[in-house]
Amino acid sequence: MNKILSTPRRLVLALVAAGAIGALGATGAGLVGVVHGDARAATSLFAPAAQPASTASAASPAAAVVAPNFADITARNGAAVVNISVVGSSRAMGDDGDEAAARQGQGQGLQGMDPNDPFFEFFRRFGVPGMPGMGQGQPQRDVPTRGEGSGFIVSSDGLILTNAHVVRGAKEVTVKLTDRREFSAKVLGADPKTDVAVLRIEAKNLPTVSLGKTADLRVGDWVLAIGSPFGFESSVTAGVVSAKGRTLPDDSFVPFLQTDVAINPGNSGGPLFNARGEVVGINSQIYSRSGGYQGVSFAIPIEVATRVQQQIVATGKVQHARLGVAVQEVNQAFADSFKLDRPEGALVSSVDKSGPAAKAGLEPGDVVRKIDGQPIVGSGDLPAFVGQALPGQKVTLEIWRNGEARTLNAVLGDASDKAAKVAKDKPDAGKGKLGLALRPLQPEEKQQIGVKDGLVVADAAGPAAEAGITQGDVLLSINGSPAGDIEAVRAAMAKAGKTVAVLIWRDGNRIFVPVRLG
């Protein structure tokens, strides 16, 4: 249930979703929640103490900054933060990764046994006596699971916001207030794409939180979080905003708030307050090597959560728009290749032929620089914007193509059809010639991969190999010029500068690779 992120260096990092359903008998077992307080720094400054004339010039005076009154914020809002307990079930074998867990336990039961032992394979397949749930020959059965998370009341008649992963697979959801009252909650709806869920309990005159605006937040502002880490209800932690508009490699549509507030299992779904005591986010994930808090956590902006809440309350479901492209980062090498003044924007690596982008005239190699006037700095800014829009919405795209700025108009489609994705970048190349041995595509190969023109990489060396191009890749274009034959490649290389943007087809994906020629 934890989200695992592997880096190119094979460093395994955990994007742990807190409060998801854990193992039976454990409180939020194996779960880590994200709590991030984002309070604004107080404006009260005190003048430094007077210094002797002889030392006044030796050190510059430093003003003392007073933090917000976290005690007042907690006293005013603590009663509106709730503890959420979840009861669900999973399959002992073969359901949602439980088979892998069973195999892991099975392997633990075989520790110390010689793999050459004639009974090793028998026990591996059918289980070790006394270990329930082991063995492929045993029937699947439901195993009760329990988990905990946090949430907060946004309406006095019992409307509550939390994370979607907190209530995923839940059969029973119980909400506990700070006055020790407990209510059975109904899940009105949950949106996995934003990780927001809306609950309702049958109660009146409940305390509520006030909502703020993330636009008013600055990096470095104070924030505060309230939640139930490890089941310890109404726990408070504080920190600062580390960054805004973070995109994570999990196909999410959310421009996360990054903070350094301490979070632990059970904090997921809890509110993130600014210095005025207004909720600016929902704590959702952490970035960790160990699976526990290590100083980096992420919260969903409250504006995103509010849009999801409004749709769920009105229709019971959530809609997201799609543009129908795969994009990747514009680094300095790409900026040089496309003659951009700075490495910003979303580089379009592929376009869905039947999607809104294709109908609008968007092509691979285009760089989207703005959408509806909003600058696209990183590639993740584009799917984050589109994901928060609605199907049918008209948008204006400002793009860069062949060294010129252009404007296109698009009508967004429905993300439930097919989600836009962010392509992975490849490392920069070294110096030298391109270093590719190429052969034409056979007719059956063109039909198989769905391209009209291209050249198969028979061998790669020099800068191309260092850039990550390998044998079997299909070269489609160089700096936007189609690679229909060897002469077309030579012509494109003759006009190239020190860096070229090579578009290749690999394993069903179109990916731009920057190659430095020196």
How would you concisely characterize the structure shown here?
The protein contains 11 helices and 33 strands. The chain is α+β, with helices and mostly antiparallel strands.
Question: How would you describe the overall organization of this protein?
Answer:
There is one protein chain. The protein has 518 residues and is an alpha+beta fold. Helices cover 17% and strands 35% of the residues. It has 11 helices and 33 strands. The strands form 6 sheets. It has a 7-stranded antiparallel β-sheet with strand order 9-8-5-6-7-11-10, covered by helices on one side. Strands 20, 21, 22, 23, 24, 25 and 27 form a 7-stranded mixed β-sheet that branches. Strands 13-14-15-18-17-16 form a 6-stranded antiparallel beta barrel. A hairpin with a 3-residue loop joins strand 6 (142-155) and strand 7 (159-162). It is elongated and about 80 Å long.
Relevant terms:
518 residues; alpha+beta; seven-stranded antiparallel beta sheet; disordered N terminus
